[in-house]
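Give me structure tokens for this 296-residue protein.
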Amino acid sequence: MLENLLTEQVNPASAGIDALDTEAMLRVVNAEDRLVAEAVAREIPAIARAVEAIVARLRAGGRLFYIGAGTSGRLGVLDASECPPTFGVSPELVQGIIAGGEGALRRSTEGSEDDPAAGARDLAEPRFGAGDALVGIAASGRTPYVLGAVAEANRLGAATIGLSCTPDSELARAATMAITPLVGPEVITGSTRLKAGTAQKLVLNMLSTGVFIRMGYVYGNLMVNVQPTNAKLADRARRIVARAAGVPHGRAAELLEAAEGNVRCAILMAGGMERDEARRRLERAGGRLSEALRRG
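Here you go.
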């Protein structure tokens, strides 16, 4: 029954929150939020296993999908949508699917989460297959829409990861890997957009960031696969080349132009390498700039 779920329990720390003054009320919320990072930290070994599994799929030509309903679905779509500008990857490489479709991003469509067949159907349009990875997101770990999608992904032979905030959840048992940050009862009973949502956001940040660091799209802590498609990103690309290659900003701009906007090639070219050789060096290094630089 739902009342037995951890995410539905009453939090004694906030039992009298409605009677507090505004500052005291917010201190209760903040104190509970501090527990979230600790809960996520306990899941780092599981998150690391998921990162390695996703990287293996992407290196073999697969894709990463997030799927969820309500807050969980919106968080998945958000993380997916941030990957192209941050890491310079195709929008098709990381995709977010939400129960109820795009309209559910702005307006709640809670009834759509109860249909497991819809979760399976929503994997068909992007031609989800065995070579892909699916992260099912559900704070309660019991959302039928997500469970239906995970069951279909398992049937296809894909990698499946269940992200929930309830111990021994249906989702954790259904997926091939489970990530379960236990944040405890919410400040407002059952409102999983709060601590559970924050935990999910932190985990999704770690998954996508960890994956693309391993894929070679980060050098040091610089996003070296950024695409200079607007003024802000062009400026960032110049600063990255200048810092990584140790050249003035004017020279960084020249290198970027010669490299046709490819930040990693521009950094390699700072040492006198031609563009085509820089591209070949990166290809031999699997796209990892640190490896290409080590090969001299």
